[in-house]
Amino acid sequence: MDILLLRPHPGSDKFGLGPFFRVEPLGLEYIGAALLAKGHRVTVADLRFRPGTAAWVRRSRPHLVGISCPHALEYERIIETAREVRRVNPDAFIHVGGHAAAAFPGPLECDDIDAICLDDGEEVVVQLAEALDKGRSLADVPALRLRTRDGWVTTPPLAERTPLDLVPLPARELVAQHRSGYHCLLFKPVWLIETARGCPHRCSFCSVWQLYERSCRERSISAVVEDFATTGDAVFVADDLFWHNPVRSLELADALKKRGVFKRWILVQTRTDLLCRSSELLAAWRPLAKDFDIFLGLEAASDNGLADLAKDSGVTETIEGVRIAREHGYGINGNFLIDPDWTEAEFRELWEFIARHGLQRAGFTIRTPLPGTEYYNQVASRIAPQPWSNFDMHHLLWEPRLGVRRFFELYTETWRRSILNTSGEKSMLDWMRQVRPSQIPYIARVLWRTQGMMKPAAYLKEYEATRGTVAPCGTSLSVPGIVEPPSNF
Questions:
Q1: With 90 as the cut, is the pLDDT of residue 34 above it?
Q2: 3-state SS assignment for residue 288
Q3: Phi, psi torsion values for 74, nearest 5 degrees
Q4: What is the pTM of this model?
Q5: pLDDT value at position 96?
Q6: CA 306 to CA 296: how far, in whole Å?
Q7: In the chain, what are the domains?
């Protein structure tokens, strides 16, 4: 079959760190590799670059179109993309997958979408393509929400979790034309690598652990080493919880060294409490890159704040984990959640914590009830009808305790205390000195856009512009569990 896999543009990224990140569609590359292995003709189109949807559909003339939906804020954009595909190619079968689609598929149940994947695509999409190609019943394809004449139905789940080595390496050649456009922080181009999938923890703001039932699957060391060895000089490891398995992590570091892997830059994501018991791991991994950064979900500046998020760790672990990582020469990045129900005291507590522990490289996002999380179910009745694009962790979904104006004054003051404020300790010129001359236009453009995070008026204007608008397809944002949940929840 001719198959087109689309990564839509997520839409507006007026606020937040979006301009700093544009990574390759790794999920589509793995699905593409699985389909290529079965003899299908696969095109991956990253719509964050030109040309647009219609051009790709006319060029590839697909029988099956897969659309990636990694985030809830993209629901409207996914539906718009599906409608454009349908207009250009009415006979194509349109399928949507990705984390947000699997965790909370209800908003995508529209006439222009034929099926929604409720689990990992490497196995499900291959079976879907085979059923379409052979004319078999789609009801026999596992882990789908299917649009039928009688409404939407759910097919049985996969018999077991998809082994990650079902597809040893992603088909990166499918997006080779866009490689120079993938970037992360100061580095460009950047390669995205996955060594494991899932998380055993239970943070209330996260849907990863619910979707995967607190499991954590790993790729074989040989596959990971080959992936590292054949990718470029700057790598972002996409694992939800790096170094989760200490024994395997030490084996992997040793295998990478034996292969002679050394990168200009590596970024990984993990937890502070894990760092507290991982000094040996940190020492083993640090020699693998000239610069090695860790992104931490710092979340809150107090034990009470962390407990409210079901983080299962405290600020003692935050402080100690950061200290140990810095001691081994790692750069520390992170993120704190800003609750709309805060008073001024909580803002000042956060500012003092940041200053005391030197955490100016952190970001700050509004605590947002993402669909598919426990927090969403807890507060869904408070959420007024509005676009899903507001679920970007920079919009208010209800009136904050301090009032909108005062909240945004304090929120933007928090951003002004970060290193992104070019009027603060790190000037635009300081940023320029950290990149190659050819990348100065990129970093200048990114920094110019992020300065909006320091301006209350910008947030207030956006807040007024989006109030009173509603989500597409008649989806109510105030009703959790619009459809029956995936059977693997």
A1: yes
A2: helix
A3: -100, 5
A4: 0.94
A5: 98
A6: 13
A7: 2-154 (3.40.50.280), 182-338 (3.20.20.70), 367-489 (no CATH)
